[in-house]
User: What shape does this take?
Amino acid sequence: MSTLSVDEAISSRRSVRAFTSQPVPQETVEHILGVASRAPSGTNTQPWRVHVLTGDALERVCGSVLSAFWEDASSHSSDRPHYMETWRDPYLARRRKVGWDLYALMGIKKGEREKTQKFHAENYRFFGAPVGLIFTIDKDMGWMSWLDYGMFLQNICIAARGQGLHTCPQASWGHYYRILAQELTLEEPEIVHVGMSLGYEDTEAPQNKLQTMRTEVSEFAVFHS
Assistant: This one.
């Protein structure tokens, strides 16, 4: 396997939404998590905890959440806002564009609720990935610890690319935090943060052709000299 440069690993990272069933060895997952744990952490608190799901455990957790999703998805919501309470531009426009682009690749037209729901349900199969990761944090941690956690998650995505793997961070798992707390026997003050799919990309899947745009540096950076 060829080695990627840091720039190549970062720039080739994508949110992959269809994986092959090719297994990922536990030692590879452990390596990725070990590398990722070198993320910056204020006062070295290292606020992350990871529940690695494979095999029967993966099937069990996915089955429990999928049952709840199909029974009544509207009755499940996160215990905190994921993004903004009220969307505004430019964030709203960016969000809409990526949604339209993804559904266009999938052949899902506006108003096709059944197809939309079926695709959304794939979140709770980890998009077919052989490894599902559920990340938890102690709920009394402050915002700096959540910032540290973001850098840890990014490190996982990049370290995975170094192993020829892909990922998809998934906020959607937070909607089912009650079920996950039971399935993973979480105890106070541990709460669900996000999930992540990990595995080998299905290169034939149309949804993996999605190319997201990033704004130019000149649009978000101000250089003071």
User: Anything to note?
Assistant: The chain has one domain: 6-82+123-210. The mean pLDDT is 95.
